[in-house]
Amino acid sequence: MRLQGEAAEKPVNFNLSRTYRTFSTMGILNINDLKEGMTLAADVKNKHGNIMIRQGMALSEKHIMLLKAWGIAEADVEGFDRDQLHEDEMKTVSPEVIEVIEKELRDFFPPLEGNEIMSEIYRITIKLKIKQVMES
Amino acid sequence: MQELRDTSVGATDHRTMQKRLHYLDEQNRALVSIQDKLERLSDFRSDMILSHDIPEILQSGIAKFQELVKTEACSVFLVDENGFEFRHEISIPERFALLMEKELDAQIMSGTFGWIVNSGTPACVPAEVFGKDDHRRLSVMIAPLSNKERTLGAVAIVFEQDEDFIRQQTLKLLYILSGFFSLSLENAYLFEDLKKSYFDTIRAVANSVEARDAYTRGHSNRVAEISKIIAAEMGWGRRDLEMIDWGGVLHDLGKVGISDSILNKPGKLTDEEFAIMKSHPSIGAQIIGGINFLEPLMPYIAQHHERYDGRGYPAGFKGEEIAIQGRLLAIADTYDAMTSDRPYRKGLVAQIAYDEILKCSGSQFDPVLVRAFAKAFKAGKIV
Amino acid sequence: MKANEIERIVSSLDKIPTLPVIYSKLGKLLQSPDTTIAAVSNIISEDQVIAAKVLKFVNSAFYGFPQRVGSLQRAIVILGFNTIKNLVFATSVFDMFRGMETDGAFDKKNFWKHCIGCAVASRVLAEAADLRNPDEVFTGGLLHDIGKLVVAVHYPEKYSNVVNEVQATGIPMVAAERKVFGYDHSQVGSALAVHWRFPPDTAQMIGSHHLSDGASPPRKDIAAVHIGNILCMALGFGSGGEKKLASVNAKAWEFIGLSLSSLELVMDKTVKLYKENTEILEM
After folding, report:
1. Are strands B73-79 and B86-92 parallel, antiparallel or unpaired?
2. Would the CB atoms of C78 and B33 count as touching at under 8 Å?
3. Is the ipTM of this complex over 0.85?
4. Is any Cβ of chain B less than 8 angstroms from the Cβ of A66?
5. CA A4, CA A111: separation in Å to the nearest integer?
């Protein structure tokens, strides 16, 4: 995603959907909110990366206890789609505000071309700043 | 502590000296205590690390814990085969096993256990179930047992200690001990994994010998199974059961050197052919003789065709001269040979084969072992 | 500037407060294996403010203990003597520096916000990278720019020049500092840390957090503070005085061993924890 020296000719929504694509908050619930019968939307892995429970499994009491025993803090559960809510909320932030945020950041950041790390930090910062604006 | 009275020394020097003496005194006491703990720790180390036997490790480990730290109860929970469920393995004293399991469940539900496993460090928390009806304040320390890659289990220790009085030393000790535990367990697991792969490889080789011939396929595995059953009936321990298992799988390895024409001949063997057949126990023993790990099995394999009355082959050993494992394998081998189909005849019915074995008690077979075999058979353990 | 020259300067600085007594008392106590939890808790409780802050920290999302920790004793028993010691250190030293008088030109509030931001970011990174001393990394992050404060307090005018130079030209603070003073804040910070006998790891984090282009960090915790510093600046927590954001040293990133995809989670967590930490440290 090249950001420096480009005018805002691209539609704003294009930027946003690119920003939000890789990060999904859909249905991630805290372990204490998990209930029997909920279905996993993604594999649950422990901190070593081993799959404990596979995606699609309906949670039983035993499963929940298992997760607790391993200190798993949260799990992605089907049926709670916050992505859609996000998209709608995002539209409440005006493109001008986003422009301002982006410009400030671009001035502050070093050149991003070819710099993977800084580009990623930039991307995340924009996202978090927009989130901040949405929440206030 | 001696008071120093030297009139030439000023009052402040006095006080300084006293302070220093006091300090040295304290340090000395601390050092003696540490020395004592270190000695006991090194006992702990040598007992545990040298063993590969998991129940033994757990048993001695917990006993040592209790020596160093006065505990109400101590339990070990290990992660099971699929790697996620914590199963109770052992508790000392045994009568607290159920209570300790309940305690662990409670700690899991409250999220404390998970936190401990995740953070990888031990923690002391108030006991939730243990000592509920007790007026005492009991704490439980849960230490995860893990190496870098995986969590192996957890140790739970219940002790009566007002947390105010827990010493830095105690906590540190418990941290170190759980470290030793983890190390030993990991070692034992690796050893078992190694042993298993090793033996799986051997089993594959042994089975390949039988692959040539549909009649004998599975024979060695069955002999191993039957031998294990008889050995269990004789009350043999884990290690011996393991050895007889391997002996069973490998007993006919020597046949790899014998040509098909003799092995699968439908008719009777000539004297010459029979002499060649009779060499298979020695050949088998020789083959495995080169492998350090399997050397103990040599006599069993070499002697599985010896007879109790001394008229067997190749050496003609008699009675107790024959290794007991050899005597045992002889029974299992013969029984399976009788009950399975051969190129020259169909298999006998189990009952008839059984009767035959009993008939040969004292002549071909060791009577004591035959009795064990009979007992197992009558209990339906031998199919 | 040579190391002993900086040491000389540092030892001549007279406006530096004394190291809080609670820290050295605690250190002494912890040397004895026979020390009881009650004894440690009592020492800490001698300073009610510190004790309260330590307890708040223990209950914060940093440690994520499932139940509320109500007493200092319980905190020690759950988190261990070492963690508590680190927390006491961080809180007491932080308070000590906060008490220093600065003149109007030095933006104290933003300075401390930046320090807390760096502390939080560095710690989150340390945990993500599974380092064994996340609390020390927190302290390292908290104090990484302490050299700036100390220099500003003693040479306010010269320090203003540094700030103006940076604003006008966009060069990094360390470059402007070297121009005006002949040394930079990380060198001063490191010398101070040694002077006060901070734990050596912490001193190194303070001294080496600015990694020049080719340099590689000798340890992961130093890399964590380096990266954490940049992250908190990117996120806009307070100000370190820089006009332009420096780039993360590629070797540092490689060394710490985190994947690029984990960065989002790290930054998200940092944002969440920053707020909590500023509350605890009463900003």
Report:
1. antiparallel
2. no
3. yes
4. yes
5. 8
